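We store sequence, tokenised fold; for instance:
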Amino acid sequence: MNAHEIDYKIFGDDMQCVEIELDPQETVIAEAGSLMYMDSNIKMETIFGDGSSQNQGIMSKLFSAGKRVLTGESLFMTTYTNQGIDKRHATFAAPYPGKIVPIDLKTYNGKIICQKDAFLCAAKGVNIGIEFQKKLGTGFFGGEGFIMQKLEGDGWAFMHAGGTIIERDLQPGEVLNVDTGCIVGFTQTINYDIKFVGGIKNTLFGGEGFFFAQLSGPGKVWIQSLPFSRLADRVLASAPSYGGKSKGEGSILGGLGRMLDGDSRF
């Protein structure tokens, strides 16, 4: 194996964290800011890129870091290495409510394609790169743009996503239409395309947008029930407007609505 052989435990239900067990000199890499806590004798180091290649030159490091910028991530990642003589633990938490998905990359031919912000942490040796969408329609309307993340290697990697995670194993020729924001990841054998919703009423009033993501088997797909973009939209829609007052707060209808909702502030 090229990647370090780590062990792990996942804690929690809707606000999960993953505890990584490190043998002496084992290392886990993680997104900057994802650490929850760690034992003593673990050395934390900030690096360019993912550190998957040994003895990288400066240009290789800059190129690796530049790829992460294209996916909207930080230039830097953080490594956590057990420098003690006993097992030590480092724990990482997802940035919003949802689930953590453990992926053993060697069981999926060494590669998983996922949404741009799905990666949480991985064993050292796993490569976190970019996957370009070759079809113009998929890039423009697929919800993820032309660039997605790819996780490559033969070790454990951990994705996070919002809400509940559904795993689907698609048979050859089996097609699944998914809301473009609900895709977490899929194996490299999946064909990813887009499909027009169709119908004027469906398009204008269906609330699902103009396109579906169309995933064709064979392969495995991970789907999330609550994309962060959908959660953010709901929070913004419910947030107070200018002056600290919610929409309609100064109207009779606004006050009546709050009374019916059990809100005494009228």
